[in-house]
Amino acid sequence: MLKYLVKVILPPLFAFWLFAVLIKYSPSFHKIGAESAGEDTVYGLIFYYKIFAPAQIAIALLTQILIAIPLWKKIVAGRTAAISIISVLVVICAIFAFGIAYVIWDPATGSDRLYSIGFFMAAVQWYYWTVNFLILYLLDWKSIRAQKAGQPN
User: Fold this and answer.
1) Count of CB atoms situated within 10 Å of the CB of 89
2) Which helix (DSSP H) or strand (DSSP E) does residue 109 occupy?
3) From CA 83, how far away is CA 42, in angstroms rounded?
4) HSE (CB half, 13 Å, CA atoms) of 46?
């Protein structure tokens, strides 16, 4: 039970903590305040992140329980499943990122702006899932090595 709780809590918290550290120690983001709210810029996204971080962490924990852990079990089960799941996850992230980008995009800014918003949002999602699965791999490293060697867990 403790190992399951660690798998649920640690990956999302580490991803959010790493993102917070990047924001805090990046010289570009030190003076982000309420004037950034509503902007379709990185500064607006960071302001949103700062305000809604507790709710985002709660959603991330729920996502971890309902999506990430079941996917991780299938990834560990086989290499073919891992490649398929990660490929589908990349496509889903891109679809959602560009869908959201299209909703918030102002056509007067041109299609280049749509692409930059979409790629940025996709990169944020891919970052989250990469960190998430990397932490899960580190937590299951010994059992994965034992499985590859043909030993029981």
Assistant:
1) 18
2) none
3) 31
4) 18
